[in-house]
Design a protein that fits this description.
The protein is α+β, with helices and mostly antiparallel strands. It has five helices and 16 strands. Helices cover about 15% and strands about 35% of the residues.
């Protein structure tokens, strides 16, 4: 049986100073700090994971925070925006909270029939909030995060067709509506079901831009595989289609394979297990510095190098 991809697992971006990043995402945006660890390949740098209260796949936004990172810039061949989903009627509460925090945001607009707003985070990353139907969402109040995870990611591509074929023919996505306005053509592709992060928007734009990785840019996007077997099945389909896919890599909280998508965006397929409670209790996620096993012998040195982080007052 051929399994389909149910949606996004996580999105990884680059930021500037880690405290500024933590203050914005765990403070103003009320995301849970799910994991405080380090970059596998550069252990003198944090790797911060944010997510919903249950740290579920499809809600995880991670950052490599570099204090001296130069500014990035979205352009063709890059993911250019990440969108969270909020329950119907939830935008008013978000706009009130953002206004109280003196965070600028666009006026509400319509995208494929849903109301949305967008803001730019302190490093230049575009973050969107899209109203959608969310079952069993808790009542909205000032102490409850009002997002439930990702709605979608936008990929800015010169030629969207090869990526569209990848999404439909290999991942099992369904092609959806297309709209053109102000020199931009956007088409939505949606994974079957109602999982978080089920949508991918492919954007073709006349705006002149040369993309550059740096603070405020998205490094890669990761799609979900519920099990290791499903991940390997998808990897086999990719190899058969001619993609150059890495072997399985242990990332402590999930196993990962990587490949370059036809449009130039780095794609990952990440497994749900073992999950983020594998090395600390669920009720204490993000409270301690957790190190990859290979870096644990260097803990004392790493702790001396990393700047201390203080949880913002509104952190969940």
């Amino acid at each position: 049986m051929s399994h389909t991809i149910p949606g996004l697992h996580h999105v990884t971006a680059i930021s500037g100073p880690p405290q500024q990043n933590l203050d914005f995402y765990a403070g103003i945006l009320r995301q849970r700090l799910v994991k405080k660890t380090v970059n596998f390949d550069a252990p003198d740098t944090y790797h911060l994971y944010y997510g919903n209260a249950a740290a579920e796949p499809g809600s995880i936004l991670t950052f490599f925070p570099f204090a001296d990172a130069g500014p990035g810039r979205a352009g063709p061949g890059m993911a250019s925006a990440v969108a969270y989903r909020v329950p119907r009627g939830g935008l008013d509460a978000w706009m009130m909270m953002l206004a109280e925090a003196a965070v600028d945001f666009d006026n509400p607009s319509d995208r494929f029939g849903d109301q949305m707003i967008a803001l730019i985070d302190p490093d230049g990353l575009r973050v969107e909030f899209v109203e959608t139907d969310i079952a069993d969402h808790p009542p909205l109040d000032e102490d409850t995060p009002i997002d439930d995870g990702f709605h979608s990611v936008t990929l800015w591509l010169d030629d969207a067709e090869p990526t569209a074929r990848l999404l439909t023919d290999i991942f099992g996505y369904e092609s959806g509506p297309e709209t053109t306005q102000e020199g931009e053509t956007r088409q939505r592709f949606t994974a079957p079901g109602t999982a978080r992060g089920a949508a991918i928007d492919l954007l073709r734009s006349d705006a002149p831009s040369i993309g550059r990785q740096g603070a405020g840019s998205i490094h890669h996007i990761a799609f979900r595989a519920e099990t290791d077997d499903i991940q390997m099945e998808c990897r086999d389909r990719l190899l058969a289609a001619g993609f150059d896919v890495t072997p399985k890599i242990d990332r402590q909280y999930f196993n990962a394979v990587y490949f370059q998508s036809p449009g130039g965006v780095l794609f990952e397929i990440a497994t749900d297990p073992p999950g983020f409670a594998t090395d600390e209790p669920m009720d204490a996620l993000g409270e301690s510095l957790m190190l990859p096993r290979q870096h644990e012998p260097m803990r004392s040195r790493i702790e001396q190098i990393l700047p201390p982080l203080k949880q913002p007052s509104h952190a969940t």
